[in-house]
Write a structure and sequence with these properties.
By secondary structure, this protein is of the alpha+beta class. It has twelve helices and 15 strands. The chain is globular, with a radius of gyration of 22 Å.
């Protein structure tokens, strides 16, 4: 199938796309490489854009837009969607997403971005939502239910985009039998709000007796998310703290203001809630797709894999696990040391946070069945982290 890869209304390249293999077999012409997905520019060579490296990475990028093979209960989802692989969904809605503005335009078609994008146009999500999050769901009956931005969602958690009052919200479930993730997202929201950290606001919702997290889309039809993973491919890699410093320099050189402080805020939050999953696709920058200007860091998002207590008894809370600092897996007590001026944090703003979390968990206990003992230990752990941060700040002041 001959097609054009578009970025909103800008033509990037024309190519021969194989809808079976999901591979771009031939690149006919590259028209605007600057508007291509950021990760592809590294592999582009003018005059030799049909090389295997560029075509392979273009194809990998496109397939990577789909639901990943590690999505929780993927087999069940595919059964309900009546398809064999997630790749089958990529062609259903031109490859459109709510994270960026890239799409595949059939050759000689007069369709435009304004005709089809999911920021302006509603989409049928009810059957996909049920297939993703419901304990019991029938196979999808309407083809329209497969023409949604739900075809291009990343991550291991079951999730679905919905529309309420013309706002696009992402609902996320839990991972296997662990039901704490939605509550961790709301806890992170409360902490960020109190400390004035830029963040995506999460709330709780109930879908068919299941507690899910709910957050608005932080991308609009003029912006895109570029992850730190994509940006680091355009950097020299050292596999140590030096990469973190190089990343900050990259942000600053592209006009991002207060980049270091904003990244530090993210790691301060991770320290407080012991978030173990700050991988390079869980943060990045927002770029204007019309001017290609780097606008800002992404607000802090995706904080669910936190407060992990693999073992506890009546006497003690046993903690294992580490956080992530760029590529490195490190203890949280080491990660917090990257903050240049920790004294800028007013810990008194977190007064009552353990009590807030305790109340939140008890409010939904009839649905989650989290025991009183576990709730108590979670709040003890949270209070411990807040107290540790206070000690670190006091030492820095002395």
């Amino acid at each position: 199938m001959k097609c054009t890869l578009m970025n909103k209304n800008t033509e990037i390249l024309s190519a021969e796309y194989n809808p079976v293999s999901k591979f771009f077999d031939i690149i006919y012409e590259v028209k605007n490489i600057d508007y291509a997905p950021y990760i592809l520019k590294k592999f582009y060579e003018e005059g030799d854009f049909n090389n295997n490296s560029f075509r392979t990475n273009l194809s990998d990028w496109f397939r990577g837009r789909g639901i990943p093979s590690w999505r929780d209960k993927l087999d069940l989802l595919l059964h309900r969607l009546n398809i064999y692989t997630p790749d089958e969904l990529l062609d259903k809605a031109f490859g459109l997403s709510l994270s960026d503005q890239y799409w595949i335009k059939p050759f000689d078609s007069d369709i435009s971005y304004d005709d089809i994008n999911f920021f302006d146009h509603d989409f049928d999500y009810s059957e996909f939502l049920s297939a993703s999050l419901s304990l019991n769901s029938e196979k999808i009956q309407k083809e329209a239910s497969l023409k949604t931005p739900n075809n291009t969602t990343d991550g291991m958690l079951r999730k679905a985009w919905i529309i309420e009052d013309d706002v696009r919200y992402l609902l996320k479930g839990v991972y296997r039998n662990e039901i704490l993730q939605p509550f961790n997202e709301v806890l992170a929201t409360e902490i960020c709000k109190r400390l004035d950290f830029n963040h995506v606001p999460y709330t709780l919702d109930i879908y068919k007796d299941t507690v899910v997290s709910k957050c608005p889309c932080f991308i609009n039809k003029d912006t895109e998310l570029i992850t730190a993973q994509q940006i680091r491919n355009d950097m020299n890699r050292h596999d140590n703290k030096e990469d973190y410093e190089e990343y900050i320099k990259k942000l600053e050189s592209n006009g991002i203001e207060n980049a270091r402080v904003k990244l530090e805020n993210m790691y301060i939050l991770d320290f407080l809630i012991m978030n173990e999953d700050r991988h390079l696709n869980n943060f990045g920058i927002i770029r204007d797709v019309n001017t290609l200007k780097w606008l800002d860091l992404t607000p802090i998002f995706d904080n669910g894999m936190a407060l992990n207590i693999p073992y506890y008894d009546e006497e003690e809370v046993i903690i294992s696990g580490n956080g992530r600092l760029f590529y490195e897996v490190k203890p949280f007590d080491e990660i917090i040391k990257i903050v240049k001026d920790i004294t800028r944090i007013d810990v008194t703003k977190l007064d009552g946070i353990p009590e807030y979390f305790d109340k939140l968990l008890h409010e939904y206990q009839h649905l989650t069945h989290i025991s009183d003992s576990r709730i108590n230990k979670l709040c003890i752990l949270l209070e411990r982290q807040i107290n540790k941060l206070q000690v670190i700040i006091e030492k820095a002041k002395s």
